[in-house]
Automatic annotation (TrEMBL):
Protein name per UniProt: AAA family ATPase
CDD domains in alphabetical order: ParAB_family
Domain of life (superkingdom): Bacteria
Natural source organism: Pedobacter gandavensis
Higher taxonomy: Bacteria, Pseudomonadati, Bacteroidota, Sphingobacteriia, Sphingobacteriales
SUPFAM superfamilies in the cross-refs: P-loop containing nucleoside triphosphate hydrolases
Pfam families (alphabetical): AAA_31
């Protein structure tokens, strides 16, 4: 079971959209996939049609109860989030082994899935640390903007600290660029800069700006179901194939 944390300390990078559609892409490849929404904003949860959930990952973290797994399709499940997670950071401060709670919860599903994708909050708090401690590898989406990797040194440093103290096998599996507009001259310059920074960690596939990606989430479905011929569907299919080969 490969556990992947999808993480960026900045908002608006396409992190949740990517988690949703990579997960759907893996399921289309008949890989048993579990999505975990550990972001209090619950965008992944709502983007797959789950609203006002009664039991969320917050309950599991707080009470050490089994993960509340909801079925989306034959090969795709989700552990939903809720706004209650907003208080989890404070509640975790006094807990023993607070960094390893999610890792312990995932032991109960070990072997039941091929892939687990954790959608992290755009912050570097205790919930994100929990995701990194549980994960085998990290995927980092970067928006195609000049300041895309402002503060990325801090993120890489956090990953390194977690590797040193809690999870020696944690790796950065790859980086991919989102919200690409091929018609902008600046796009190529940004891509070159990111490639210099991350070298061979940069995936060949980039995700183009595509309204179908937004519309699909508003409908509560993935882009493959909503618009299978769209640029968004093509790009995430290609990215999923890269992930299957490289991770």
């Amino acid at each position: 079971m490969k556990i992947i944390a999808v993480i960026n300390h900045k908002g608006g990078t396409g992190k949740t959209t990517s988690t949703l559609n990579i997960g759907a892409g893996l399921a289309r490849a008949k890989k048993r996939t579990l999505l975990i929404d550990i972001d209090p904003q619950s965008n992944l949860t709502e983007g797959l049609g789950f609203r006002d959930v009664k039991v969320s990952i917050y309950d599991s973290i707080k009470n050490d109860t089994p993960l509340p797994i909801e079925t989306i399709s034959e090969y795709l499940d989700i552990v939903p989030s809720s706004l209650d997670l907003l208080g989890a950071e404070i509640e975790l401060v006094s807990r023993l082994g607070r960094e390893t709670i999610v890792k312990r919860l995932l032991k109960a599903v070990d072997g039941k899935y091929d892939y687990v994708l954790i959608d992290c909050a755009p912050a570097l708090g205790m919930l994100t640390v929990n995701a990194l401690v549980a994960a085998d590898t990290v995927l980092i989406p970067l928006e195609a903007e000049y300041f895309a990797y402002r503060g990325i040194d801090r993120l890489v440093s956090i990953i390194s600290d977690v590797r040193t103290h809690y999870n020696e096998d944690l790796t950065i599996g790859g980086v991919f660029i989102t919200k690409i507009n091929p018609r902008r001259v600046i796009t190529e310059q940004i891509t070159d800069s990111i490639k210099k920074y991350f070298s061979d960690k940069l995936f060949e596939t980039s995700i183009r700006v595509n309204v179908a990606l937004i519309e699909a989430q508003l409908k509560g479905v993935d882009v493959f179901e909503y618009a299978p011929l769209s640029n968004g569907a093509v790009d995430y299919e290609n990215l999923t194939e890269e992930i299957l080969v490289k991770l």
